[in-house]
Specification:
Length: 313
């Protein structure tokens, strides 16, 4: 099958690799424009790097909706299908109507739950034990198209890096299993029930800020959801501290939220509104990420010290 692939982050890489391995013709890979990193270093997307290594043609339109030349190029290619996985742009109807079998999306949730930009992070933040991937036929709405196939995955206790890798691999496998049914007409297209749909938006930096005035369970979910960005963070003595690994303790707090309740050799414990968090790994502003033990050897932490919010978040 002639397939144009659209994707950008690491989540999309297994789907593109699966299409290559399955022998599909891929005349074009579309990904977001390169970004500038530290010292203005150009950073290509993970999908671009895979496409380059596979010798595939690449396009990086800034805004597809307003790029008539690019849309005309897609029409000239006349793909049987466009496969989209975390691409990062909304496709206009003029693009959706081009492929013979439509535009097929690999979406990181069990639709109609968690339509939108951050389904994997939101499933972790809300404490889901399971989520999954839905293969759907795209329409002009935001993740509102007909569902074709689903796979469910256990995500309990996992952080976003682990969940994204799990769902990316599961989605790639499901995609390859679903394409033949789309091609031969045996696929079932199920409309979504808008009445039970939920939505999730883009994450913001301030989402990660905490003064520990929530339960330890909630904060643990946030820490795992925000593990890559924006991270769960607070402030100690005017310096930002990012938290990466902790254990939930089902103990009554013995101080105000944010205060240090206990210090061990390789950990320290912070009081929450309910329960406590035993911190095992963090990063102090201006320092490298390190274990709690190493952190305390360089910072004179004591019981009663308080983590809180800074006015400049």
């Amino acid at each position: 099958m002639k397939i144009v692939f659209m994707g950008t982050p690491e989540f999309a890489v297994p789907s593109l690799q699966a299409l290559i391995d399955d022998g599909h013709e891929i005349p074009l890979v579309v990904t977001q424009p390169d970004k500038k990193g530290n010292r203005n270093k150009i950073i290509p997307s993970p999908v671009k790097m895979l496409a380059e290594s596979a010798g595939l043609e690449i396009a990086q339109p800034v805004r597809i909706r307003k790029d008539e030349e690019f849309i005309a190029r897609l029409a000239e290619i006349a793909p049987d299908m466009i496969v989209v996985a975390a691409f990062g742009q909304i496709l206009p109807k003029s693009v959706l109507d081009i492929p013979k079998f439509g535009c097929i999306n690999v979406h990181g949730s069990l639709l109609p739950d968690l339509r939108g930009a951050s389904p994997m992070q939101t499933s972790i933040r809300l404490g889901y034990k399971e989520t999954g991937v839905t293969i759907m036929r795209m329409d002009v709405g935001l993740d509102t198209g007909d569902m074709i196939s689903k796979v469910t995955c256990d995500i309990e206790g996992k952080n976003i890096t682990e969940v994204a890798e799990l769902l990316a691999d599961a989605g790639a496998k499901l995609l390859i299993e679903t394409i033949p049914a789309i091609a031969d007409g045996s696929a079932t297209y199920t409309k979504q029930d808008d009445a039970i749909a939920t939505h999730c938006g883009m994450m913001k930096k301030e989402d990660g800020a905490t003064d520990f005035n929530e339960s330890a369970d909630v904060l643990d979910c946030k820490m795992r959801a925000f593990y890559e960005w924006p991270t769960l963070y607070s402030y100690l003595d005017g310096l930002q501290v990012k938290f990466f690994k902790a254990e939930v303790l089902d103990e009554k707090p013995n101080g105000e939220p944010g205060t240090v309740a206990d210090i061990g050799k390789n950990y320290y414990t912070i009081n929450c509104a309910e329960g406590k968090l035993r911190i095992l790994e963090q990063q102090l502003q201006g320092k490298k990420r390190m274990s709690a033990g190493d952190f305390m050897r360089g910072h004179a932490l004591k019981v009663g010290d308080k983590f809180g919010l800074d006015n400049n978040i």
